[in-house]
Amino acid sequence: MATNPRRSILYMPGSNSRALEKARSLDADVLILDLEDAVAPSQKVYAREQVLAAVNAGGYGRRELVVRVNGFDTAWGRKDIEAFANAPISALCLPKVESAAEIHAVVQVLKQAGASPSLKLWAMAETPRGILAVSEIAGSHPLMDGIVLGTSDLAKDLRVPHTPQRLGMLTSLGMCVLAARAYGIDVFDGVHLNLDDEEGLRLACEQGVEMGFDGKTLIHPKQIAVTNQAFSPAEDTLIRAQKIRVAWQEAEADGKGVVLLDGRLVEALHVEEAVRVLAIAEQIATRDAQN
Ligand SMILES: CC(C)(COP(=O)(O)OP(=O)(O)OC[C@H]1O[C@@H](n2cnc3c(N)ncnc32)[C@H](O)[C@@H]1OP(=O)(O)O)[C@@H](O)C(=O)NCCC(=O)NCCSC(=O)C[C@H](O)C(=O)O
Ligand SMILES: [Mg+2]
């Protein structure tokens, strides 16, 4: 599991030089520099070169960099992977993954390219087959570090409408969270397509938090602030976590294995969760103090 906050994950087309520049000053935790669906076929090679130049030039500070490559079965996929095997990024994001075998094939290419051992893999879950195989994909290899929902492709394939409640997608969303938790990796919710619907985005973020997602993928800078807030621990959660930590230290000193706090039972499992929440808050504070 990653230790850095990954609340807001902003996509940008690799062919859009203005967006690549702008991203150096945006408050997103993660940037996905996209070579896949946001880039027209005629721009694929240009986008690859431009993204490589941008990440090598640096200036992204605390922001984690991820490159979404084209599918392995396309004319560009393999070359994309080879181009970024040793680039200063944290992960490759693989679109429309449907099996563990696809992950192993990418790992082979990375080995042949002498890839940096720190380069991780994120797999997009965005087809019915990908959702049904998400558990084997999440656990397919130690390089696996994240599952990213592709709810636009998924809605199309499932033939479900985009509604505020996302009823048609709840099963898929839940399966991805389960798979990620089973294998100790992160999981990110899909994009909110209506850029003018801040209230709808906030509700979608709250639903994502409630379902167990670590963060949400975004398509525009104006979606970042709402998302960062929604995926940060709430003030009352932090106060309770601090109280749990103190109460537990006192209980341990008294040789007790359980304690009552404000009338509610606290056991070791609650302490574990409190420590996790406090660590996330600390990471967010550290991140906010950086450029
Ligand atoms: C949707 C957009 C095309 C809108 O772009 P634009 O018209 O330029 O918007 P604005 O004028 O409001 O932009 C204001 C400034 O912000 C910069 N900007 C805009 N979007 C981004 C971005 N994503 N990253 C960084 N910077 C961005 C503009 O350059 C303006 O800057 P300035 O000149 O200084 O004022 C555009 O937002 C866009 O292209 N968004 C990303 C689309 C994308 O990447 N789509 C693919 C990923 S989503 C997907 O595939 C999901 C998945 O696979 C699935 O199946 O669900
Ligand atoms: Mg997609």
From TrEMBL:
Domain annotation HpcH/HpaI aldolase/citrate lyase: ranges: 7-221
Keywords: Lyase, Magnesium, Metal-binding
InterPro entries tied to this protein: Aldolase/citrate-lyase_domain, Citrate_lyase_beta/mcl1/mcl2, Pyrv/PenolPyrv_kinase-like_dom, Pyrv_kinase-like_dom_sf
Cofactor(s) required for function per UniProt: Mg(2+)
Record carries keyword ATP-binding: no
The protein, known as: CoA ester lyase
A GO term for molecular function: lyase activity
DNA-binding among keywords: no
Source species, domain of life: Bacteria
